[in-house]
Amino acid sequence: MPEHHSTFVVDGAQRAAKTPPGFKAEVAQLDTFKLPDRATGSLGDHLLGKALIDAWRKDGIIQIAMTDEEKKLWDDAKAASQKFFRQPHAAKAACVDSQSYAGYIASGEEVTDGIADYSEIFTITKDLGPSDPRVRAGWPCHGPCPWPDSAMKEAMTRYNEALGRQGEKLLGLIEMGLGLAPGSLTRYTRDGWHHTRVLRFPPRNMTNGKGKEGRGIGSHTDYGLLVIAAQDDVGGLFIRRPNEEEKFANWVKSAAGLREDDEGWMFIPPVDGVHTVILGDMMQYLTHGFLEATPHKVGLNTRERYAFAYFHEPSFQAVLKPLEGGCGGKLDRSAKDDQGIHYGTHFTNMFLRNYPDRITTKRMVAEGRYSLLDREELRTMDAPATL
């Protein structure tokens, strides 16, 4: 499968130099996959899908080569994020919305396992104006994205749209690799609740003292289907490989903080021109654990670090049910789940847990919006909002 598969070799000394101080970890040497312009269902696409799945099952993470267009979009988005984060705190703090969880998150505001994280974030969610029926009906997490200016909005939107196309392509390839009928996964992403975390991490010696020394983000798994990420040349990402002795089910019990100080972490060195892709809770749930959500964390390095994490997600209204076919017959079809998981509730719970003191959380509680998640229209894909 040479047309879709290659390997980047990074000098060992260079990789080791980028490992954040105070962390012991194996340094990953990952294959990099080149995705086709369009997945057509060819034999090559099926083989590529199987190779991607094998890599996720072995390492918990893959690298995919950026196209020239994606590299330009990443450079533009990174420049926009650097410009934003270098603004005075008051200007950044003004970019907050009380209905959505979009906008600015100060260093120390996000909490993982009860401990403040040092990540500084701008979250991009669906940008829904006041006339949108879902916003008018008070749906949890629905509202505008409080952009600081049109230049940042344009750069981030164009990059997000490109990653959305890659996300759909990856889901199609996963369907082929698992032997699933077309649409088994992508049927859930109609009007997907895709969103992005634009991230800055301070140098480890220039924090505000609210969190844990050297820790950028505590260990956790992500809540959706796919996370497509890019990082600058500084380095700070660690992941845990799939392990039969370590099982997480974040939708049953929070995985935040688990194994954070244990041995067995793998450092993911920066490689120019690639996206990394890990799997989230809903992919694990759908495949009965055949594909697992990847535990990961971020360590602070000696320089500030910029990164970008795009979440390719189901519809907020989707109720997911475990798959009944594929994986070469290796799915546990005896595991019945008649209730399924409502993605909107799963997403909302994660943000409530991470931002207990945010204005959005306080308004949701004060106005009783959380109870709306039980309404049938919020649990039926494409159903219109009613007032």
UniProtKB/TrEMBL annotation:
This protein's record includes keyword Iron: yes
Entry keyword Oxidoreductase: yes
PROSITE patterns: FE2OG_OXY
InterPro entries per record: DIOX_N, IPNS-like_FE2OG_OXY, IPNS-like_sf, Iron_ascorbate_oxido_reductase, Oxoglu/Fe-dep_dioxygenase_dom
Keywords for this protein: Iron, Metal-binding, Oxidoreductase
Gene Ontology MF terms: metal ion binding; oxidoreductase activity
Protein name: 2-oxoglutarate-dependent ethylene/succinate-forming enzyme
GO annotation (BP), single: small molecule biosynthetic process
Family annotation (SUPFAM superfamilies): Clavaminate synthase-like
Fe2OG dioxygenase domain mapped to chain residues: 192-314
Originating organism: Immersiella caudata
